[in-house]
Amino acid sequence: MWCASCLASACAGCACNLCTSAASVVTRRSARLAYCGLFAASLILSFLLRQFAAPLLHHIPWINAFEHTPPDEWFQMNAVLRVSLGNFLFFAIFAIMMIGIKDQNDRRDAWHHGGWIAKIAVWAVLIVLMFCVPNIVITIYEVLSKFGSGLFLLVQVVMLLDFTNNWNDSWVEKDEQKWEIALLVVTVVCYLSTFAFSGVLFMWFNPSGHECGLNVFFIVMTLILAFAFAIVALHPQVNGSIMPASVISVYCAYLCYTSLSSEPDDYECNGLHMHSKQVSLSALILGMLTTVLSVVYSAVRAGSSTTFLSPPSSPRSGAKNPLLGDEETGKGDAKESEPRPVSYSYTFFHLIFALASMYSAMLLTGWTSATSEKSELMDVGWTTVWVRICTEWVTAALYIWTLIAPLLFPDRDFS
């Protein structure tokens, strides 16, 4: 128990000190950024424990409860999953607490925006306690995390589609020639990038002298999807635009690259190691920062989205909100008899962070697919390959659905 307390308390203490110093200046408008900071702290803690905690976990009897001690990679994954579970419980509890909030006169509205010293303390205690639970709890959470991560990837796709459509609509509504030219430039650049990127993938992941039919299939499918997006979007009966199609094409090419780059280093068709240096700690840190930005953007954008998050009673439901710019004001600005509606769903906001906790754990553990990979590699393995390539295909299917759904169901409002 002493080792568990020292391990979790020492790492969580650093994050607590940083967060506590800023807790007193958190306002209603910056509350969402504060939640992002807490989530980022959990990712940093997970990363540090993944790198350095294995020797300490060896000495905790309820964790190393095996006749034959597992390899270090197992303890690394176990540490990440325990931090993730604590973070998940923190946001899941808040998601449940915030169910049904409609206006800012609800006492729980203050719980969502304030009390940061208490929140940080609860967050730290939950993470420490997760190092006291038996391994069976972590095993169950590991299985559930794979499903939760899939839901989070689906949310990311929805956010991307929402972003591209809003981007296109905002420039089209300006009805000026310079913005039309800008749309054309973005479209051309995106399609050129897609085809150039695909050519590079052919060079890296289809080396001469090897039969790499699976990699070729993935790359060719990406190109076919890019053409399909353009054809469907430009169809006379489809109310589509070519610019979103080009952006989705680039994103699909990127997902194809991340999928192929996650193939094991010893796989003969993975030629990436011949074009890049061996993975280093600095590269891992850079990859971690990218993950933090991606996850935090998805969660914050979800909290601001009007597509399916704003309550019907919200004055901003159906409006185009900036990422973090909704003008949330205090209760004193409105008459007691006229409560001000909340501008987004607090429950869904916390739920997105809970799912993101699961997703980040899967990234750091390579989707817990194998413990035989090199310990310094992150997000590598065949499970990761298929998760990413399926995400690409789901993205393509959802985008095409957004184009053809109004034709199939003309009586429904898809705006």
Automatic annotation (TrEMBL):
Ranges annotated as spanning the membrane? 32-49, 79-101, 116-136, 181-205, 212-235, 281-300, 344-364, 385-409
InterPro entries, per this entry?
TDE1/TMS (IPR005016)
**Pfam families, from UniProt?**
Serinc (PF03348)
GO-annotated cellular components: membrane
Q: Where in the cell is it found?
A: Membrane
Give the residue ranges for region: Disordered. Answer: 305-340
Question: By what name is this protein known?
Answer: Serine incorporator
The species is: Urochloa decumbens
